[in-house]
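Hi support team,

I submitted a single chain yesterday and got back a structure, but I'm not sure I'm reading the token output correctly. Could someone confirm the output below corresponds to the sequence I sent? I've pasted both exactly as they appear in my results page.

Thanks,
R.
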Amino acid sequence: MIKNFCVLFLMLVISTSGMGQSQDKNILAAVNSQYDEINPVLSPDGQKLYFTRRNHPANVGGIRDEGDIWVSTLTDDHQWSEPQNVKELNSRNWNGVIGFEDGGETIVLHNHYKEENGIVRTQGISTAKKTRKGWSAPQDVNIPYFKNLSDNPGGYLSKDEQVLVMSLESYGTRGAEDIYVCLRKPDGSWGDPKNLGSTINTEFQEFTPYISDDNKTLYFASNGHGGKGSSDIFVSERLDNTWQNWSEPKGLQVLNTKGRETGYRIYDDFALYASTINSDGYSDIRFYTEKPIDSIMMAEPEAPEEPVVQIKEVTDVPESRANQVTMYGKVLNKDSRQSINAIVTVSGTETEFKKEVTTAAENGYYSLSIPASGKYEVRVDAPGYISQRENLEVNTGEMKLVEINYNLQPISVGTKVHLKNVLFEQSKPTILESSYQELDLVVDLMKQNPDMKIRLEGHTDNRGIPKYNVKLSKARVEAVKDYLVDHGIASKRISGKGYGGSKPIADNDDPMTRKLNRRVEFTIMKN
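Hi R., thanks for writing in. Yes, this is the structure output for that exact sequence:
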């Protein structure tokens, strides 16, 4: 493995367009090695970086193997892990990832895999399905009139999965590799490759194409359009639906160097590509972004801990009550600040202790005593109001007074409720068990108000890749909805939407307030 070799790590360079500044980061230290790393492809969830590594001893064909697929995983401290060879996707031929289908459940691969007498006799692309243990065996996909004489495959599957752009040395090639397009037919099969014409393709090499989400802007590497080095990244706009008419390709001046740049792909606020600059002629994976790398490329932070109420110490307490804690306070209407009749219930989370009191009608006060050591759940209920829940931890040898005041939201159309104790596994839509009590409050509320309808809203902070944050927030909303439905609430009473990090309620630049933006809320739509 890599640790057995003299590894030459390349510092990540982040260029700032228009400012001529750069900043070094070492987040790709584990990915880049003394071997060639090319063809970087990010998984749809943003958590895995696939790439092709040439001539590594751990490749299926050993050091003579021109390329195996390797994968690195994004860690909690926004570093990329030590890469692993994805053996089930590799053969003795060149292997690389083109893209993904079905939200990442299917991986699209360069070349065919099926051998006859040890030889692959057909050409095209292949797909494999995600399994619990990794990926299934790749299955060949037929593309009519597909031929590629090049040893340097490159390609990209469009976001809508309807367009496949590839670099091939094939029928009608003007020199070495040219860029071709395959369009998906209504039955799901692929049409034959069509050359993009002489504006894009030259007598030299055009390869590693990428096309924008709207299928109109083409990025590709070339050594036939001039430039700064042995190959540069160029961009061109499609002018009509023939796929033959393009604007004059322009080099990406802020990114190209005197080295060899290939495999450019855009992911929202950043791009991935490969370059040989400052790497002794070997290709390394690079990021390009105009934003701080920490703000766009990191695993989602840990969920905040559940809040625990603070104890206010009061002296001069009778010795006879030294093993008790008295908690007291008011329960008020959050909007009008008027006192309300409510029931305050305190239950031990590790014992069978339970006590409840009713607030005083004239002023909303309550008071009760609990053992001076333990963990408790405090629940406040009142007819016509959203119930509230808090955690209380007490650990003291002396008597304390604990003041906890509650402001309950009246139930009305348009009321928004923040479910601050509904938490999830990191970067996943899996609800933590500690969230169930808060969700049970919502279940009780909707059962007590059978005509109520709600809209769930999922939010994240601004760290991570925006489109993946939106996807994660949507999945978490669905998880909350599933919990409510499983506990007896009709599905038609619940709608939902994930907003990612687009609606912050606190400063994202401050780590102490950023966590407030990671939240699930619901709004009462009908009562």
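A quick pointer for reading it: Residues 1-25, 298-307, 310-321 have pLDDT under 50 and may be disordered. Let us know if anything else looks off.

Best,
Support desk
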